[in-house]
Write a structure and sequence with these properties.
mainly beta; 4-stranded antiparallel sheet; 13% helix; elongated
């Protein structure tokens, strides 16, 4: 009986947090620097065995009228060491378009605290893009997948 109340409390908390996250106001912006958590592996079992994951960084222009420009996509490992710059030229994203960047499941250099820094800008104030990572891994007959949403850490003026 005690466990039913704990489960109910967890479900209600999750529902309230999900609603708050879904209704979060997103103000128009000329650009941002966004921190995006990622995991090249997580740990499983009592011995903390690494479970390798493929990472997809997804950037989605949510503005129906304005293009945005991606000016930087950098990948960092758990201790903050820079691992990879994905391009040297800015990438234009048309309204409602999306792009993606991949880290192979075999690439475990990022660690469980890996992250991306993404910078974007726009000529006009527009809806900020949705920037998230999708982690997927399979071993034997077991599979795991989850997402992590980016957090703006700096606004462009």
């Amino acid at each position: 009986m005690k466990y039913k109340y704990h489960l109910l409390l967890i479900i209600v908390s999750w529902m309230l947090l999900s609603h708050a996250y879904a209704t979060e106001s997103r103000s128009l912006s000329h650009g941002q620097t966004v921190y995006v958590p990622a995991y090249s592996h997580i740990y499983i079992g009592n011995k903390g065995t690494p479970y390798l994951l493929a990472i997809t960084l997804s950037i989605r222009n949510t503005d129906p009228s304005n293009p945005i420009q991606i000016t930087q996509v950098d990948y960092f490992e758990s201790q903050g060491k820079h691992l990879k710059n994905f391009f040297s030229e800015p990438v234009d994203l048309l309204p409602l378009a999306s792009t993606r960047y991949l880290i192979s499941q075999k690439d475990k250099k990022g660690g469980s605290g890996a992250n991306f820094i993404v910078k974007w800008k726009s000529q006009k104030k527009c809806n900020p893009p949705i920037i998230e990572t999708i982690m997927i891994g399979t071993q034997s007959q077991q599979g795991i997948s989850f997402t992590s949403r980016g957090v703006p850490i700096l606004q462009t003026k």
